[in-house]
Amino acid sequence: MLTLDNLDKVYRTGTFGTSDLHAVRQVSLDVQRGEVVSLIGESGSGKSTIGKMVLHLLDSSGGTMTFDGRDVTKLGFRARREYYRKVQGVFQDPFSSFNPIYKVDRTFETLRRSYFPRVTGSEWRSRLDDALAAVTLEPDDILGKFPHQLSGGQLQRLLIARALLLDIELLVADEIISMLDASTRIDVLNLLGELKGRGLGILFVTHDLSLGNYVSDRVVILYKGRVVERGETSAVFDDPLHPYTRDLLASVPHLDRTWDEVEAEEAERTQRLAGRCLYHEAITAQGRSLGEEADAADGVPDGVGLVEYAPGHFVGCFRKAAEEKCPAAT
Amino acid sequence: MTATQPTAAPGTEAGEQPAVTGPAVSGGRKAQGDVRETLYFALRNPKVLIGLVVVLGFLLLGLLGPLFLRHAPMDYAGPPMAPPSADFPFGTTTFGQDVFAQFVAGLRSTFLVGLLGGGVAAVIGMTIGFVAGYRGGLIDELLNMLTNVVLVIPGFVVLIIINAYLGVRSVPMQALYIGIFTWPWVARAVRSQTLSLRSRDFIDLARLSGVGVGTILRREVAPNMYSYLFMTFVLLFGGSILTAASLDFIGLGPTNAMSLGLMMNQAVQWSALHLGLWWWFIPPGLGITLIVGSLYIMNVGLDEVFNPKLREM
């Protein structure tokens, strides 16, 4: 449904915009209907930037974005309005997502004024009730209150209800769990699962591996703006290949295993993959030499491409930062 | 006031909620409810009430006063240098002019200068501030440059030159010139506020609702700054009055009208201070102080009204 192809984001920084900051490098991924795709990465990995570009809150600097086959890389004001009927977002901080001086109802009212000016009051009220019921909120507890009178979980579910009023197809959930209490997290997570069941595609941006594991069908691991590994959640989590993914997974405590077991397993895997780079091995296996991959991977420059290691499990060059050398080349 | 009870006010019992959710979801009536609620809290705030009463009192006096006067401000109506009496409540000047008549006429031009001068400066400054802060980039750079250029022009000196150059000086022209030279700090302040508000998620959410720039500025950004914008206007209003009074006082006031500053100018010129004619210069001075002071007090109160977090606890 949504396909990103070699998406780039470059910020100009420094005096007079003399230096560039590559926030997102050549990111390709896709989200299908009825599927949760997690974008996982640490701060500064570019995951939120990708989410904002999908929502057209930021312009992309290169690459293309298509939605249902239509090119949506650049949209004018009107086209963007139509795009927002299908694609909506929920952000990290629920308290900053509402204008603090107005009651929460106004968020819905804005939507109505913008998209449903002809819907009558009672008709709108029943739609609102339906949307609120879908996120398990009682209209009477919520409407007519100020944002600071509600909990983060309630606000976050309100925002999802807002997206549902539009009958959307893709939801960009940008760290929507991170600022919630542990007790309300699971409600929102389960809600996402339910929306997925209804056929919604969800792009779930998170830095939390366990959340990514819990809800998503596929994961995309980002590091410094580039995709280092992506694939089916089970494939990536059971057999992490890229050094960064392995580091990440090794640093998460498991309920069912002791620390020693985890470390032993990771040590064994490190042993097996030390000094290797599956990406470049695959490139070489295809009869091409290092440095030629730019032609091979449709013009994707050095080492930001991915190879399919196992069906549905892609991995990039094993170096971490862009300026590092590939471990296999040394 | 039965219907205006703010059942939707923060901190009310959940049991009262259904009463308000009805109107709350339908557009036009909801906006009306907001206004009504703001008024409800405004009229219960002592600071707002005191400020409002004083300012409105002076305004009414300026508007209605002339209807009941027997003498024109410049008429030689009575005995010279008479202290306040029943016939002349504020006494008379060295020439026997009615100080009260002058005061009432001066109030009119004072409010006119404040309103026009403050209004012109507020409109220019806020427009430039909002657009520069929200759009950013090249537009921001250009508008900022313009702001800085006007900011470093010594406004008061230019005003003196303009006023000295003009043969016939009227109150509206004076207000216009004052407005044109006092907006830069407003633009800078509004710009920085807009910059900080722009990065908040609810602005992004409004954009996701397919709303245009103008609407976002008007409906999402500006309301968060209402009390600030009002304070800005108050400062501009007061500032215009004070600037006009200063110009009047040094003899560059309107040539075809009376103003409070002009009264003080004349009082000083004719040595009212040495002759002990306190009724000549106290009323205009006190008038200016009370009007500007009340506006300040009102602003503090309005901050509590506009910000539900401040008024709730």
Major sheet description of chain B: none
CATH hierarchy, class of chain A: Alpha Beta
What is the percent of helical residues of chain B? Answer: over 70%
The CATH homologous superfamily of chain A:
P-loop containing nucleotide triphosphate hydrolases
Low-confidence stretches of chain B: 1-30
- Any guess at the CATH architecture of chain B? Orthogonal Bundle
CATH homolog superfamily of chain B:
MetI-like
Mean pLDDT of chain B comes to 81
Number of domains of chain A: 1
Number of strand segments of chain B: 0
| Global morphology of chain A | globular
Q: Which ranges of chain A are low-confidence, i.e. pLDDT below 50, for 5 or more consecutive residues?
A: none
Task: Summarize the model shown.
Chain A is an alpha/beta fold and 330 residues long. Chain A has helices at residues 47-54, 77-86, 105-115, 121-134, 139-142, 152-165, 182-197, 209-215, 233-238, 243-250, 259-273, 278-285, 293-296; strands spanning 2-13, 19-31, 36-40, 62-67, 70-71, 87-90, 170-174, 201-206, 218-223, 226-232, 306-310, 313-316.
Give a written overview of the molecule.
The complex is a heterodimer of chains A (330) and B (313). Chain A is built from 13 helices and 12 strands. By secondary structure, chain A is an alpha/beta fold. Chain A has a single domain, classed as Rossmann fold, CATH 3.40.50. An 8-stranded mixed β-sheet of chain A has the order 6-7-8-3-9-10-12-11, with helices on both faces. In chain A, strands 2-1-4-5 form a 4-stranded antiparallel β-sheet, covered by helices on one side. In chain A, helix 4 packs across helix 6 and helix 6 (152-165) runs parallel beside helix 7 (182-197). The mean pLDDT of chain A is 85. Chain B has helices at residues 17-24, 27-42, 46-64, 99-135, 137-152, 155-165, 171-182, 184-198, 201-208, 213-224, 226-252, 260-269, 272-275, 278-306, 308-312. The two termini of chain B are 23 Å apart. Chain B is built from 15 helices and no strands. The longest helix of chain B is centred in the middle third of the chain and has 37 residues, at 99-135. By secondary structure, chain B is mostly helical. Helix content of chain B is 73%, strand content 0%. Chain B has a single domain (41-312), classed as MetI-like (MetI-like fold). In chain B, helix 3 (46-64) crosses helix 14 (278-306), helix 4 (99-135) packs antiparallel against helix 5 and helix 4 (99-135) packs parallel to helix 7.
